[in-house]
Each structure stands twice: as C-alpha cells, then as structure tokens.
Amino acid sequence: MKYSFSLAAFAAFVAANPTPTLDKKDGTLSVAACASAVTIAPGSNPFASRTLHANSAYASEIAAAMANVTDATIQAQGAEVAKVGTFLWIDTIARVPLVTTMMQETPCTDIVGIVIYDLPGRDCAAKASNGELKTGELAKYKSDYIDPIVTAIKAAPNVAVALIIEPDSLPNLVTNANLTTCSSSASDYQNGVAYALKNLNLPNVAMYIDAGHGGWLGWDANLQPGADMLTKVYKAAGSPKQVFGVSTNVAGWNAFSASPGEFAGASDAKYNKCQDEKRYINAISPLIKKDGMPAHAIMDTGRNAVQGLRQAWGDWCNVNGAGFGVRPTSTTGDPLFDAFVWVKPGGESDGTSDPTADRYDSFCGKPDAFSPAPQAGQWNEAYFEMLLKNAVPQFT
Ligand code: BGC
C-alpha cells in the first residue's frame, strides 16, 4: 500500500492544517463545504477564485515520512510541503474510495485535483507505470473505475473538482504507435478517455486532457498530429462542455519559460520550437482551438525548479538534482495558462532503479536518474529531501 493513513500522522496533519477540523463526536472530518451546488462555468478559470486543495493523502504520506526524520529543519519544511495543493492520483480501482474522502474534506475555498490514471494497458511505451488493467479490459475500466468515480463526484455537487485525464495516454498514441503495446492499446485508450470525458462531464468539474509536454508533442512533426488526436477523442466524447483544455508537463521537468530553451544547443533543436511549456502551449493551443476544443492549460510545476539536468528531453525518470518548483497559482502571466499546479506528488518515485525488479524501465537506470529508487508511486525519502534542498522558492 502506498498510502498509510496512520491515525498519528493524520492527527499531526490536522493539527498543522487550520482548515479541516475533526468532529470530536464521531471522528469524521468536517469542513466548510459550499452551501450550494458548485458550477464551474465553461470558459472561466476554475483556479482564479479557488486554492488547489492540499489533500490529506499526500499530507499523511509526508507526515509518516517525517516521523522517521530527526533533522528539525527537514521536518518543518516537510510540514510546509504538506500544505501545498497537490493532485491525488487514483491509479488503481482500490483507490477509488479516496475520491469520496476528497469530496468530504475539500472546503468551499478550494478545488480538489484528481488524476484519472488507470487505462487498460497503461504506460504503453514504458514499463515503470504499467497498470492493473490489461489491454482489452475496457469494460472493467468503465464499470469498476470510471463509473464509481462519477458516482462519488455526483454525490458531492457542492465541491469543485479539477480532473487531469490519463497522463501520457493520447501522446503515446501519437508518437509511439510503432510499439505493439501502444498500437494494441490504441482503441482502449481512445474509447476509455472518451468515456471518461463524457461521463465526468459534471457542472462542478473542470477537465484537462493530458497533452504530454513541449519536448514530446512540441516537435514540428508532432504538433498537428497531437492536436488532431486530442480533438478527435474530445469529439468522440460529444464535445463535453466541462473540458477546459489540456494538462502539460505532468510529472515533468520542463521550464515554463526559458531562454535559451533547455535543449536549444542540441543538433536537432531546429525541429522543436517549443523549448519551454509557454511556447508549447502557445503553439498547440491554436491548432486545438481551430478544431473546436477549448485549449487552456494547466502545468505541473511540482518538480521543475532546476533546469539542465537531463541528457535528453525524453528522460522522464526520477531526474537527479531536481527541486520543488513554483507553488500552485492562477497568476501565470499567460492568458492560456489557467494555473501552475502540483500534479506529481514530490517524493513519490517515477519508477524503480532495480534492474532485476518487476516493472524496471531502463530510463530509471540512466546516468541522469536518481538511484536508488523504489517502484513508481512509492516514497523515496532521499529524493524528497533533494527536492526540498533544491526548491525554488525555498521552503522556510
Ligand atoms: C505511478 C502511480 C503514482 C503516480 C504518482 C505514477 O508514475 O505509476 O502509481 O500514483 O505516479 O506518484
């Protein structure tokens, strides 16, 4: 189990966080939920008047880790990280009940961020995050994963929700269709994402479909096919009005704006004009919009404080030397960006560095990847402390 909800850790979190309070009588969490149903108007910025929720799952994970730390500075900084709004990944059917927990604990001031991440044949171009559902298990994805999430959100119409839909899935279909694992997953991915978009299209929900990052779909040859793939699935879902645009740099390392771009000196740089996320979104957004889909963006800045660490754009696993980036905010300086958000919970691994382990991917053994590292999603204390040390801005 990735998240342990030890009472001590949870109590420590609640003590450190003034918003939720424990109801003394039955031990349940009571928060000031909105008094009436929330409507996130299409075309509005869902983050403009709301704070990304600092969820109790990440907070208790941090609290459990800090309980083993003796350095008081790290403990104090860790407690500060626990207060930063971060998305919660629902990466297995077993974790679906956490959606209800999130709906119960999110106050009216906040918007809760949830990552939908359990497609059949997940992570088709890599091994580290291969999921529980096999290619062909689309019916199970719909009935056992998406449907109960829809039920949980429908049961709490007074809570604002931001959803990131299936990181990496559609980008993989654009650039990795040559792999059997991706070509055989293609119809499940497209039908699964369309089903999620159609059924999660609720008034209190803002959805962002994952669009990879500038070092992936930002290449000249990938921009139009990338936009085509996104809009095709959006239309297959019936153009749901609660789709606000795309997510970018999820679990990634790219800068929002960098000059010169991080790989501007590379021999193939002339083929990628999207050397940062600002340029990427400004390039792909008009192509998406032209085809009728809203194309605002949210960007993961959770681990992008330090640039120049990777040997190549595509190095995605536990990049060594990384630091926590800009805290979630709707002040982005670019009208296409609704918000900078934290999506990948810093400290959770991207994949194991053990070559003998199940789900080992060679990217996690590259020279620019931090080692040792546990399985994807598992806590890596040394990595968390490195992110703290290299954070910009620092935690005090
Ligand atoms: C893992 C998930 C995990 C998520 C957030 C992904 O790479 O596959 O299991 O929940 O990262 O850490």
Summary, kept brief:
By secondary structure, this protein is of the alpha/beta class.
Comma- or semicolon-separated keywords:
globular; alpha/beta; 10 strands; TIM Barrel; eight-stranded parallel β-sheet; two-stranded antiparallel sheet; 396 residues; binds beta-D-glucopyranose
Walk me through what this model shows.
The protein is an alpha/beta fold. The chain has a single domain (7-389), classed as Alpha-Beta Barrel (TIM Barrel). Helices cover 31% and strands 11% of the residues. The protein has helices at residues 7-16, 56-66, 72-81, 97-105, 138-154, 169-175, 180-199, 220-236, 277-290, 381-389, and strands at residues 21-22, 29-30, 51-52, 88-90, 110-116, 160-165, 205-210, 243-248, 296-300, 337-341. The strands form two sheets. Strands 3, 4, 5, 6, 7, 8, 9 and 10 form an eight-stranded parallel sheet that branches. The chain is globular and about 45 Å long. The two termini are 31 Å apart. 51% of the residues are buried. The model is unreliable at 1-28 (pLDDT under 50). Bound molecules: beta-D-glucopyranose.
Distance between the termini: 31 Å
The CATH homologous superfamily name equals: 1, 4-beta cellobiohydrolase
Bound molecules: beta-D-glucopyranose
Beta fraction of the residues?
A: 5-15%
Strand-pairing-aware structural class: alpha/beta
For this structure, what is the CATH class? Alpha Beta
Helix and strand string, N-terminal first? HEEEHHEHEHEHHEHEHEEH
Biggest sheet descriptor:
8 strands, parallel
CATH architecture field: Alpha-Beta Barrel
Mean pLDDT: 93
How many alpha or pi helices? 10
The CATH topology annotation reads as TIM Barrel
Residues in helices, as a percent range: 25-40%
Radius of gyration, taken over Cα atoms and rounded to an integer in Å? 20 Å
Total domain count: 1
* Overall geometry: globular
Unreliable segments of 5+ consecutive residues:
1-28
The counted number of beta strands is: 10
GO molecular function: hydrolase activity, hydrolyzing O-glycosyl compounds
Active site: 123, 168 (proton donor), 350 (proton acceptor)
Organism: Hyaloscypha variabilis (strain UAMH 11265 / GT02V1 / F)
Binding site for substrate: 89, 91, 213, 216, 316, 344, 348
